[in-house]
Amino acid sequence: MKYNRILLKLSGESLMGKQSYGIAPEMLEQYALDIKAVVEKGVEVAIVIGGGNIFRGLSGASKGMDRVQGDYMGMLATLINSMALQAELEKQGMKTELLSGLAIEPICKEMSRRRAIEAMQEGRVVVIGGGSGNPFFTTDTASTLRAIEIKADVILKGTRVDGVYTADPEKDPTATKFKTLTFQEALSKKLKIMDLTAFALCEENNLPIYVFDMNQPGNLLKVVEGQEIGTEVM
């Protein structure tokens, strides 16, 4: 295996499937089965999910809502998604641990590095909701923070596109794909992979990001095995 401990970052929108809102059961099942295949190979897995399929703090703020209140609502949305994925993982026979930047008893315990690492070493899939627990930080930044805390080998950013392109391949048929990128190249080309805070944390801590298509069944295992199917930023 190329990676022994991963932080899988999923967007909330990815859980919608073909719906325009909410959580599609078929997407939960596909993701859970892909994660199970990786765990069965002995890889330690932590997961951070966004909440954009339910609520975005920035979206609320743009309509006049208080930004802090909106961000906390967005954090709660990530917890709903985390609970849904946890339930599906357990349905598929896996042991899990749900942690959060916001401790909400009896749903989850507060995120701590020691708690997360111990759970992974025991073979549990650790799902981390609640963002960073603070407003004004995105789920990208939260996932980077968690990856550094648990000493993950890589952030695997699961998207619906098979890597990073010169332009949006869904809009521009001439867009070409990058196999590898440095952080500085990604910044200079203004490629929207993660926000600037997340990028700075990754670069400072020598934490690579691997962008790949999570919606293609089996791709997660291919990435962990070292197959070059996406784009590595390092």
Task: Give a structural overview.
The chain has 234 residues and is an alpha/beta fold. The protein has helices at 25-39, 57-62, 67-91, 113-121, 139-149, 183-188, 196-204, 219-225; strands spanning 5-10, 44-49, 96-100, 109-110, 125-129, 154-159, 164-165, 177-178, 180-181, 209-213, 231-233. Strands 4-3-5-2-1-6-10-11-9 form a nine-stranded mixed β-sheet, sandwiched between helices. A two-stranded antiparallel sheet has the order 7-8. It is globular. The mean pLDDT is 92.
Order of helices and strands: EHEHHEEHEHEEEEHHEHE
The chain-level mean pLDDT equals: 92
Helix content: 25-40%
Helix segment count? 8
The value of Rg in angstroms is: 17 Å
Q: Order of strands across the biggest sheet?
A: 4-3-5-2-1-6-10-11-9
Q: Give the low-pLDDT segments.
A: none
How many DSSP E strands?
11
Shape: globular
Task: Quote the distance from N terminus to C terminus.
Answer: 19 Å
The fraction of residues in strands falls at 15-25%
Class of secondary structure makeup: alpha/beta
Largest sheet: 9 strands, mixed
